[in-house]
Design a protein that fits this description.
The protein is α+β, with helices and mostly antiparallel strands. 30% of the residues lie in helices and 30% in strands. Strand 4, helix 5 and strand 5 form a beta-alpha-beta unit. The longest helix is centred in the middle third of the chain and has 15 residues. It is globular and about 40 Å long.
């Protein structure tokens, strides 16, 4: 693989904006993301600066964004991991029972799909998740639209399995999103996928 997988730096807000807007124009965006391209365009530069700063790993960070940087400096993919602390309320209004990670904003440019890049991005996010001492995460989850079989297959190949939780899709309550999760590996078994 000729990409460097690394966390976003706080000063890379313009590239964070660019990869997000590209992802929101993807044909799968209506079932992959809760934001539209038009909504993404409305965010001021201050929003993107704050987003990049908040996604840079630092002591006590509650989120991190990993990118796949090509040799020419372009970003070919991205994934963010949010930390959900036990006892907090998630985006569904449900109390989080145990500390866990939540993968969001998973995107790989079409020309890089099928190359294993999504696995490398998610492996980096999982490695970071399992390295946290506080809070110690019990699992990492994500939600995938029922009509996004390509994404479902990619996540299952990486090791995510259905948890049994199904929630209505925010933009169309007649559609569903499936929760997939991977449990924390046993001690000594943590490795990159």
């Amino acid at each position: 693989m000729n990409h460097v997988i690394r966390p976003v730096r706080a000063d890379e807000w313009a590239k964070v904006r660019e990869i997000r807007l590209v992802s929101l124009q993807d044909p799968a965006a209506p079932v992959a993301f809760l934001e539209t391209y038009e909504q993404g365009l409305q965010h001021p530069d201050s929003y993107w600066r704050q987003r990049a700063a908040g996604a840079s790993p630092k002591h006590g960070s509650r989120s991190v964004q990993f990118i796949a940087e090509a040799p020419d400096g372009t970003w070919s993919g991205s994934v963010a991991l949010l930390i959900e602390v036990a006892g907090s309320i998630d985006f569904l209004g449900t109390t989080i029972e145990r500390a866990q990670g939540h993968l969001v904003g998973v995107y790989v440019r079409p020309e890089q799909r099928g190359t294993g890049l999504i696995g490398e991005l998610i492996a980096a996010a999982l490695e970071w998740a399992w390295s946290l001492e506080e809070p110690r995460l019990a699992r990492v989850r994500l939600y995938v639209h029922e009509r996004n079989p390509r994404a479902q297959a990619a996540y299952r190949k990486i090791g995510f399995v259905p948890s049994g939780q199904v929630v209505p899709f925010e933009h169309d309550p007649s559609a569903r999103e499936l929760e997939l999760a991977v449990d924390r590996p046993a001690e000594g078994a943590v490795s990159r996928a």
